[in-house]
Amino acid sequence: MRLNGKTAIVTGASRGIGKAIALRLAREGAQTVLCARDGDALNPDVRDFGSAGLAAAAIALDLRKPETPVHLAEFALRRFGAIDIVVNNAGATKRGEFENLSEDDWADGFALKFFGSVRLTRATWPHLKAASGSLIFISGVGGRTPGSQFTIGGSVNAALLSFTKAMAETGLRDGVQVNAINPGTIRTARFESRLKAFAVEKQIDLPAAERRYVEEHAIARIGEPEDIAALVAFIASPEGRLMHGSLVDMDAGATKTI
Questions:
Q1: Is a pLDDT exceeding 90 seen at residue 19?
Q2: What is the secondary structure of the chain as a DSSP string?
Q3: Above 90 in pLDDT, residue 161?
Q4: pLDDT for the residue numbered 72
Q5: How confident is the model at residue 186 (pLDDT cuts 50, 70, 90)?
Q6: Cβ–Cβ under 8 Å, residues 72 and 61
Q7: Distances (CA, A) of 92 to 3, 41, 129, 130
Q8: Cα–Cα distance between 93 and 75 in angstroms, integer?
Q9: Taking CA 219 as the corner, what is the angle to CA 218 and CA 220, rounded to the nearest 5 degrees?
Q10: Confidence (pLDDT) at 169
Q11: In which band, very low, low, confident or very high, does the pLDDT at 60 lie, cut at 50, 70 and 90?
């Protein structure tokens, strides 16, 4: 219960990494606001949280729209009275060959993950400042190790890492802790879909495909959403307070550069 009495906002919280983060923060004692576009996916999660004795509320918003981050901040304040932790996790970007990616694909990639994060940071910063709170960005290894199939995602993640460093300097003045986590390959629904396609391509079963994937990408293993959630909980806890302006690669060794 390291976060008892704190209020946390987690975006992209209806599945995968975001859902795991929201659950971990709630188990650590935080009153947790879950946000995602899919309200039908969020509502059962909140009921489950309540059944487990955890304090949570959900709101369905599209953070690509400029006005919605303010609504999210207002919702959290109405429900719990403060904002102590913000986890900017929402945002998936389209993969593929550069020549096949449209103007709309690029605009959509930046609209949610980058500009959504920037706007939510702006909307919550005064409250994080008042609470000496913690701001965490979930970026990705593509921001430091670009790839031809990930031109949009890598560019968005790199922008987020730069934004993290800039806000960390502002956070020194305002008393707000700011960090970013770069997940590698995590066992989400999106990865499972890619793994199935990889298994078909190699004509092998799923366990063999996962072993081959790990070998070919030279990583220790496939990560779990709970791995990322545990690090978020540590960073936001009193024990993690020394971390500031950190860009943490939690990627099973995928990032090979210094």
A1: yes
A2: -TTTT-EEEEESTTSHHHHHHHHHHHHTT-EEEEEES-HHHHHHHHHHHHHTT--EEEEE--TTSTTHHHHHHHHHHHHHS---EEEE-------S-GGG--HHHHHHHIIIIIIHHHHHHHHHHHHHHHHT-EEEEE--GGGTS--TT-HHHHHHHHHHHHHHHHHHHHHHHHT-EEEEEEE-SB-SHHHHHHHHHHHHHHT--HHHHHHHHHHHTT-S--B-HHHHHHHHHHHHSGGGTT--S-EEEESTT-----
A3: yes
A4: 98
A5: very high
A6: yes
A7: 28, 17, 28, 31
A8: 27
A9: 135
A10: 98
A11: very high
The amino acid sitting at 193 is: S
Q: How far apart are CA 41 and CA 189, in angstroms?
A: 14
- Please name the residue that has the structure tokens 């690509």: 64
**In order of start, what are the domains of the chain with their CATH numbers?**
7-186+223-250 (3.40.50.720)
The Cα-based distances of 120 to 85, 128, 157, 174, 257 in angstroms read 12, 11, 16, 17, 31
Give dist(CA 210, CA 224) in Å, integer: 13
- pLDDT reading at 17 higher than 90: yes
Query: Residue 178: its pLDDT value, please?
Result: 98
Nearest to residue 16, comparing CAs of 89, 120, 112? 89
Q: Closest Cα to residue 17, out of 225, 180, 230?
A: 225
Predicted confidence at residue 258, as pLDDT, reads: 85
Determine the distance from the C-alpha atom of residue 187 to the mean position of all C-alpha atoms in its chain, rounded to a whole number: 14
Query: How large is the average pLDDT for residues 44-52?
Result: 91
- Three-state SS annotation for 124-158: HHHHHHHHCCEEEEECCHHHCCCCCCCHHHHHHHH
